[in-house]
Amino acid sequence: MYYFEDKEFGEVMVSLRAGMRSITMRWKGDTLYINAPSAVSNNKIYSTLDKFRDKLRAERPKNVANYHLGQVIQCYGLTLTIAEQAQRSSLIVYEHSDDNVNVKVPPGFDFNTPDNKRWMSKALRQALDGHTKPLLELAEEVINRVGVAPQGFEIGHGLHKLGHCTPGKVIQLSANLMFLPEELIELIICHELAHLTHMNHSPQFHALVDQYLGGRERELEAKLKTFNWPVIR
Questions:
Q1: What 8-state DSSP symbol labels residue 39?
Q2: Residues 100, 178: one domain?
Q3: Which uninterrupted H or E stretch holds 119?
Q4: Is 80 inside any structural domain?
Q5: Are 20 and 54 part of one and the same domain?
Q6: Is residue 127 classed exposed, middle or buried when 0-12, 13-18 and 19+ CB atoms within 10 A define those classes?
Q7: Sheet holding 93-97, edge to edge
Q8: Cβ-Cβ contacts under 8 Å for 202 (sequence gap 6 or more)
Q9: Which of 8, 89, 108, 180 is the most exposed place for a label (fewest CB within 10 A)?
C-alpha cells in the first residue's frame, strides 16, 4: 500500500492487488481508498480518479470526525474527554471516574493523520465498554411505555447496524448508540421493538414504529441521517 496527495481529496491510499481486473474507489471516513490491479500504472490510477471525480465528490462523507486535546464528547449517560498523558506511552489509555472517562493520548499525538483519526475513533468507541447501563435502562423505559417486550437485550458494537431483532425476539443494540441523543436512541429501540410484530419493513411496520414514537418516525429518521457522529463510520 502507498499513498499520494490529490489536489482536492488530500491523502489517497492505494492498494495494488493481484487478480483484480478493475480499479475500485471508496471513502472510509475522509480518506479515499483505491484498490487496483497490481500491474496498473500510476497514470491510469490518476486518470481514473479524474474520470470519477464528480461522483466521488458527491459521495464524500459530509460529516467527518475531527479531534483535539480537551475535546469533550457528551454521550448518553457518559462524558468522554480527550486528554494528554502525563507519562509517555505508545498506547491510548483510559482514566475512569463515575460517569466520566478521560481518553488519554500519547504526548505530541498528531490528530490530523488518517491513521491516528481512525485510532482515536476506535479508542472512543472502546471507551464505552462497561458503561452501557444507561442504554439498557432507557430500553426498559421504552418497552414499559409501548407495552411490548423482547426476550431480552444484548449489547453489540456495530457501527452501521445499530440494532437488530433476532428470530428468537432478542434485541441487539450497539453500544455506539450512546453517541446519539436520547430521541434518536429511542428511534432505534422502537424500530427493533416493532420487529417483534412485523419482521419486515412494510407500511404496517412503519405505522407501528410511528405509533411508538408519537408520530415522529419520519422526523427522527431525517435527524439520524444528518447526525454528525463523533466517530468514523
A1: T
A2: no
A3: helix 114-126
A4: yes
A5: yes
A6: buried
A7: 72-75, 78-84, 100-105, 93-97
A8: none
A9: 108
Instruction: State how far the Cα of 229 lies from the Cα of 233, in Å rounded to an integer.
Output: 8
Whether residue 77 is found in the same domain as residue 104: yes
Residue 92 is classified by DSSP as -
147 CB neighbour count, 10 Å cutoff: 8
With H, G, I as helix, E, B as strand and everything else as coil, classify residue 36.
strand
- Domain identity same for 138 and 220: yes
CATH number of the domain bearing residue 146: 3.30.2010.10
Residue-level pLDDT, tens digit, the chain, 233 residues: 898 988 888 889 999 999 899 999 999 877 899 999 999 999 999 999 999 999 998 888 766 688 999 999 999 999 999 999 988 778 999 999 999 999 999 999 999 887 898 899 999 999 999 999 999 999 999 999 999 999 999 999 998 899 999 999 999 999 999 999 999 999 999 999 999 999 999 999 999 999 999 999 999 999 998 898 999 87
- Cell representation of residue 49: 480518479
DSSP 41-80: -HHHHHHHHHHTHHHHHHHS-SS-----TT-EEEETTEEE
184 & 218 share domain: yes
Q: Which residues of 165-178 are buried (b: 16+ CB within 10 A; e: fewer)?
A: beeeeebbbbbbbb
Pairing of strands 72-75, 93-97: unpaired
Domain count, the chain: 3
Cell numbers at residue 88, please?
509517555
